[in-house]
Amino acid sequence: MRWLDLGVIVAYLVGITWFGSRFRSSQNSLKDYFLGGRRAPWWAISLSIVSAETSTLTVIGTPSLSFAGNFGFLQLVFGYLLARLVIATLFLPAYFRGEMYTAYELMRIRFGTRIRRLTAGTFLILRALAEGVRVFAISIVISVVLGTGEMASIAAILCLTLLYTYEGGMTAVIWTDVIQMTLYVVGAVASLFLVLQEIPGGWGHVIATAEPLGKLQVFDFRIGPLAEFFTRTYSFWAGIIGGCFLTTASHGTEQLLVQRLLAAKNERESRAALFSSWVVIFVQFTLFLIVGVCLFTLYKDHGWTPPAVTDSIYPRFIWERLPAGLSGLLIAAILAAAMSNLSAALNSLASTTVMDFLRPLSGGEESANESVWLKRARLATVAWGVILAGVALLARNWGGVLQAGLSIASIIYGSLLGVFLLGLLTRRVGEIAAMCGMLAGLAVMLYVRFATPIAFTWYVLIGTSMTFGTGLIVSLFLKENPRAAV
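Given the sequence above, the corresponding structure tokens read:
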């Protein structure tokens, strides 16, 4: 029976790699490789945004949140919607005033080349750390299925994803994302129906079991003592405010997601992709939280002992309890989530490396030979694949994968969002003042992360406020000749 499952998984991996590699023939320039030639429809970009925003951390991390807690994570998702309103109003018009390849070109236009390199370098560090956690997350799934060691699991998924990303660029990323996201959502729906079949009384029994325990609770409006208010990870206020700042930073300043928005044909289609992606995100998170509560009921009814690593509970159920063939398909769906996000990360890391560092240092945009730069872009993709493999091996001791990934990102997001807001909302702040603000924000966030019990949902707000405030204050004492506001 296991051979049938393994056959399904191998067939999927080979098929998606072949499909993505077929886009090589359309890669004739950096615009093709990094922006898909701006030919993708808005709905495909929307699904690609969802894939980049959620990944394996959602697939295996979200069910474990409701298994151990409740539906409180959804409060963050409402903050995600508020953030999209901010991005559509403030960021997208600035990004579409010219032809940009990365988010950090906006910083060059507003401030100068030094802060462009600082923000781009910050992104490279952020994405390498956060993506390392995601690569490690998928090794959890592969080790459950194949019983292989972590190094072999990481190498397998990286090599396959690297192959089609190297060949097909952003076009391959977007269209494989569409297939992969559809697969893992369909897989979650199928697993939900199957776990309900194992529970006598079905959904009604799940509600009867979970509701008295508060596991279906979504909103937590408590304020309470100030210390408790900022240490509670999932509350209404942390979700709306913290979720808004988190998503404004990720979708407005981080190349991983900005690259997708820039790949749209125009600002209108970019906006359509952004807002429609929230609807899919909301449905997706709700679906995986329901799966987690159903698994909790199943374990409680049978008196089973949960696995030591709670993040493995969903892939373990799929592999051990579902019929042969179907379990292989659903494991392939989890692998799909990993590969879609990993391919996007590789392409965005390569685009930032080439467009914000290598190409400017070589004499400017005009002197570049497209075929030479296309080869360098592919080599940068390979280099980042090797780096991510190393980070993934270090991520084994960083805690639960979903919260680890979000907290790592949140440490640096505040500095990025703060400096972008300085560029978009102020006129007098110059490059040096903005850099001072960014460094101050990062220093404060490192202190908050390692020396306080403050929940990660507040990290971006704190870092943004410190960056923005410091930049304004420094600009009062440091006389610069700032460029015009973008």
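The chain is about 75% helix and 0% strand. Try to locate this feature in the token string yourself.
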